[in-house]
């Protein structure tokens, strides 16, 4: 069992397999040049698997594969199968922008993937193109349908940005309501890699937009292991809002992050990290597990995006950690 210094049990490992991305989303990495970490600097799938399997032995029950855009790394379905074959009841999930899903969804499902989170910031082609800085919407929608057809459980993530896709919030909600997908609106997380001047909607602003069409929604009891607060419409459909500027979910945080280069990150915001790369590449799995436990021992009690510290801006690149 993996316990941090505040007594929180950790059973959820997020693994970034690449920092590369085929979008240039304004809230993430709009100006990032094509000067990526060389492939030889990344942990191989085999090395990542060594650590993941050891982590499962220590109590990890959920593994989420992230990026960057994880589907840019070749052979991802083979990697998924490695994890599934090791423990087939693991909660095995993926976060993606959906652009490469049309050809990948069935392979991933066949390999053992169970759930998938897909970014959908607008159903307006021009707005989606403005955010991603390329024409993406029709292909993303094909990807969502491919995941649905394959039988993957789907969650949709949407980041509302003022003056860009704030008017699309209810349309995205209605799309998910019609399709039967879970949708979560995510408050923009300030970071130095986002487009200058980008401002997100806060929770109250998102709820106000929803209330224009659905005035009688209500909060549902919070699942403390989830970063989202969910709300229920009169017909029973639920939508979530993730509020990083609050620390409600920190008390029950069960997550640890591993980057593609082998850095273990205890909290999305904090800069503190330790590398397992040398230990894993030298087949010293016990040392890697010891590093994991040391990282957890130093994990902070709360994130730094509190309402009181609303001037905090992260220098961490979220495309490196699957934020």
Automatic annotation (TrEMBL):
Annotated S-adenosyl-L-methionine binding sites: 27, 68, 119, 189
Keyword 4Fe-4S: yes
Enzyme Commission number: 4.1.99.22
Family matches, as CDD domains: Radical_SAM, Twitch_MoaA
PROSITE patterns: MOAA_NIFB_PQQE (PS01305), RADICAL_SAM (PS51918)
UniProt cofactor(s): [4Fe-4S] cluster
Record domain Radical SAM core: where: 5-228
Annotated [4Fe-4S] cluster 2 binding sites: 250, 253, 267
A GO molecular-function descriptor: cyclic pyranopterin monophosphate synthase activity
NCBIfam families in UniProt: moaA
Family in the record: Belongs to the radical SAM superfamily. MoaA family.
Protein name: GTP 3',8-cyclase
Gene: moaA
């Amino acid at each position: 069992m993996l316990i941090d210094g505040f007594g929180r049990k950790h059973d959820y490992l997020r693994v970034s397999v690449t920092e590369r991305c085929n979008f240039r989303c304004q809230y993430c990495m709009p100006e990032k040049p094509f000067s990526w970490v060389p492939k030889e600097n990344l942990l191989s799938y085999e090395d990542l698997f060594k650590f993941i399997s050891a982590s499962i032995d220590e109590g990890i029950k959920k593994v989420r594969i992230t990026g960057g855009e994880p589907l840019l790394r070749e052979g991802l379905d083979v990697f998924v199968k490695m994890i599934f074959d090791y423990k087939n009841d693991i909660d095995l999930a993926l976060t993606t922008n959906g652009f490469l899903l049309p050809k990948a969804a069935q392979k991933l499902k066949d390999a053992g993937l169970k759930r998938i989170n897909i970014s959908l910031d607008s159903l307006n082609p021009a707005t989606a193109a403005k955010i991603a800085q390329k024409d993406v919407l029709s292909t993303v929608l094909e990807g969502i349908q491919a995941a649905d057809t394959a039988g993957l459980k789907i969650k949709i993530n949407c980041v509302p940005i003022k003056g860009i896709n704030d008017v699309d919030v209810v349309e995205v909600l209605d799309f998910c309501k019609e399709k039967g997908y879970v949708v979560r609106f995510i408050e923009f997380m300030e970071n130095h890699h986002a487009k200058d001047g980008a401002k997100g909607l806060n929770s109250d602003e998102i709820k106000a937009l929803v209330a224009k069409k659905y005035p009688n929604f209500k909060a549902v009891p919070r699942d403390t292991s989830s970063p989202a607060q969910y709300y229920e419409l009169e017909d029973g459909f639920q939508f979530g809002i993730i509020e990083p500027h609050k620390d409600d979910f920190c008390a029950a945080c069960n997550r640890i992050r591993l980057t593609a280069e082998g850095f273990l990150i205890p909290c999305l915001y904090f800069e503190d990290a330790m590398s397992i790369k040398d230990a894993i590449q030298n087949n010293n799995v016990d040392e890697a597990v010891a590093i994991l436990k040391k990282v957890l021992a130093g994990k902070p009690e709360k994130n730094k995006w509190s309402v009181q510290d609303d001037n905090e801006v992260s220098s961490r690149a979220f495309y490196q950690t699957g934020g």
